[in-house]
Amino acid sequence: MRFYSTNTPDTLVDFGEAVLRSLPADNGLYMPETIIPLDDAFWKSWKSMSFSDMAYEVVSTLLQGAIPTEDLRNIIDDALNFPAPTVRLDDQHHVLELFHGPTLAFKDFGARFMARVMAWLTRNSDDPLTVLVATSGDTGGAVASAFHHVEGTRVVILYPSGKVSGLQEKQLTALGGNITALEVDGSFDDCQHMVKSAFLDQETARKHNLTSANSINITRLIPQMLYYFESARQFDTPPVFVIPSGNFGNLTACLIAMNMGLQVKQLVAATNVNDVVPEYLASATYNPRPSVPTLSNAMDVGAPSNFTRMLELFGNDWGAMTETVSGFAFDDQETRDAMRQVHEQYGYTIDPHGAVGYLASEAWLTAHPEDTTIILETAHPAKFPETVGEELGANAVEIPERLACLANEPKVSIPMAAKPQALIDWLQA
Ligand SMILES: *Cc1c(COP(=O)(O)O)cnc(C)c1O
């Protein structure tokens, strides 16, 4: 199993290098050299397999032996130990709930799988793998939780002191064990600059096995294919997946699943006013630009990092992409209205990201009223208490125990000056 960089297609690297490097040196993105379709034997039995067996068949077909059978099965079972139910609202609308993981967002799928794959790749090394992350909020929490208790790894998180929410800070500072939080007396940009400097310091980077848990790491897309298989197999005909999108990793994962043979009627990309991709689908013009803040803030992306991968999968053919992918964009007022409408009509509490998805499903169903849509609910509504409270009342959503219990845990962090050398000295000590 080899990977090429989208900027230099004839240079191939193996799976381990693609995962541990995350980003090719030429600033492209890693893509699988070949995507092998699942065979007839799989499609004869996929609907009756256990989730674990189905997941193993899909991932092992993609990875072609890069991880031996038993190790791969353990990684999948350990990483994906929470459900992803598809909930019916009515015949036309379903919700695929991706928030049952430890940090209540779909990023748990990718981060937990990546953590275990990285630990497996470095299992014979004497030094632990050190994952360095700068965070302004949610990413650090998902990465910290994913690596917590994973042997042979440690995570060092840098966050700007006083600039993350109380519960977010607890997600970084209350875990302990192999997770260390550095509380930087500066901004998020300072944190990012410090992390970059540590990677550039070759001696430090080598000595401490530094790696990044960057969101464009190709391993994060692999487990994200699995919930499309899991959901689609519950229907007699190929469904329409509606995907609230920002960097388009989730949508790219579905495209890879479709290249392996998964039958999907259409992909609907749902965005907020950061609508670079819907605009491209409508006009064939790609115009990345600075993002603007919205209520669905995890989708506030003005230059989607996986767009290159989408183009690659369609051979850079706009027309081919529009046959498979449709796009719709909505503003914050529409998002608020949709949260209320879903609650009134179905008694279902949807978060602002899922609400954008709901609006896109309605737009699609206007022209295709008989279709079955499945909206991806990418985060738990409890992560957005302000917006949900304003629209649906303070009692509309309960904070799940696994998040609420963090509030009582002590915060443990190491204060640090906003200087690159401070981080390097700390790593050396
Ligand atoms: C990251 C995120 C998204 C966007 O996913 P992409 O794969 O970047 O398109 C959507 N919703 C939530 C809640 C997220 O955290």
Q: How is this structure best described in words?
A:
Its cofactor is pyridoxal 5'-phosphate. The modification N6-(pyridoxal phosphate)lysine is found at residue 107. Keywords: Amino-acid biosynthesis, Lyase, Pyridoxal phosphate, Threonine biosynthesis. By secondary structure, the chain is α/β, with parallel strands linked by helices. It has a domain at 83-105 and 220-400: Rossmann fold (3-Layer(aba) Sandwich), CATH 3.40.50.1100. It is built from 20 helices and 14 strands. The protein has helices at residues 15-21, 40-45, 51-63, 69-79, 107-121, 138-147, 166-173, 188-200, 202-207, 221-224, 226-232, 249-259, 276-283, 307-313, 318-324, 332-346, 352-367, 385-392, 401-404, 420-428; strands spanning 2-5, 8-14, 30-32, 86-88, 93-97, 129-134, 153-160, 179-185, 210-211, 240-244, 266-271, 325-329, 373-377, 414-417. The strands form three sheets. It has a six-stranded mixed beta sheet with strand order 4-5-13-10-11-12, sandwiched between helices. A five-stranded parallel beta sheet has the order 9-6-7-8-14. Strand 6, helix 6 (138-147) and strand 7 form a beta-alpha-beta unit. It is globular and about 65 Å long. Pyridoxal-5'-phosphate (PLP) binds at residues 105, 107, 244-250, 298-299, 353, 378-379.
